[in-house]
Design a protein that fits this description.
It is built from 11 helices and 19 strands. It has 442 residues and is of the alpha/beta class. Helix 6 crosses helix 7, helix 6 packs antiparallel against helix 8 and helix 8 packs across helix 9. The radius of gyration is 23 Å and the shape is globular. Its main location: membrane.
Length: 442
Amino acid sequence: MSGLDRNQAPKTRQMAANRTALVASLDVGTSKIACMIARLRPCAPNEALRGRTHAVELIGYSQIQSRGVKSGAVVDMGEAEQSVRQAVGLAERMAKVRVESVLLSVSAGRLQGQLIEASADIKGGAVSASDMARVTSTGMRHATPPGRTVLHALPVSYSLDGVKGIRDPKGMVASQFGVDMNVITADATVARNLMLVVERCHLNVEAMAAAPYVAGLSVLTDDETDLGAAVVEMGAGTTTIATYSGGRIVHASGFAVGGQHITMDIARGLGCCIADAERIKTLYGTVLTGGSDAREMMNVPTAGDNDRDYPQAVSRATIANIVRQRAEEIFEMIRDRLADSPFAAEPRARVVLSGGASQLTGLAELGSQILGRSVRVARPLGFGRLPVEAKSASFAVPSGLLVYPQFAHLEHVEPRHTRQLKTGTDGGGYFGKVGRWLREGF
């Protein structure tokens, strides 16, 4: 079985609050691969969004068509490796630095988050850091079935002798100590193959993170995190969800339906090729059907090899109906997932859509109708000097990965001797490289 089975995926250490660092993020998706390189500069608390200690200055980025990936999982190692090399190379040239390690997002592998409780007797009377690590580690292992790997183990609150809601129990006295934690897991094989592709490009995987979790770090306002929000990351091949409450992530899930399915529906429905269907979706994709759309016709090339085939005339309403049917199905699946999460108990909590597929016209309004909640389309918040094309919802995940190291301290990290993760011969492993993101000094 892979080295990630029932183990924790690579984790980064917390950033020093007073240090400048260079970080690189890699989002390997079904239709596109994005790489972003940024300088993280320490900033005063009043200058940053809550929880952030550093300002993120983007110095290089790229976005290219993805190859060798289906529904967020690697299906062709060689093609995926070429795509990653190309994406990282373009971003490196723009930033004029050489990347050594990357933060990597995971959107496939049936993401799942569950809240679990673990407790243990305290021998010494006062709760120590090792007690906290021991109980959290035990809880995390129990929550990880065979064939799964842990992406995040986030303690939500602690309890002492049955008294819940304790924020920091260190040094407090009790005979029994417990932790409520959110454990987010993915299929170990999917995570391992994604890691292997990156390692074949001679890059270290500094940390792996669930796509909807890091999207939330990029796009949610403080109020949304506190009052409750669900981030729905709508990719080409997957739709993943992270729900937040009381300032913390409390649930995660996902399914393998996304924007590419809309493209395929258009291709089938109109009898055109996939490239034309994608172009039609991008230019005319809407879930809104207005009065004039039924009359407004457009020419669509047919998918035959015969040059004499005449393009067919199709009304915009026909296209909108095809798009709307699949979008409704996706929102109904989202509604089912949200009903199974703690989010269901928060009627005023809103839904925030991110990812490339969230940019279809009218999607927020349709989502609001089906989910019965306020819905908005996301954009990355609190970033200096983002180019126009990177300000969109489709960059929520790679930009969120750049913020992620500032939140690493919230997670439980297994001690390094229990983590046989490295496949190469490099004895330093992941922790030898922490902080050494890039070869170039700055």
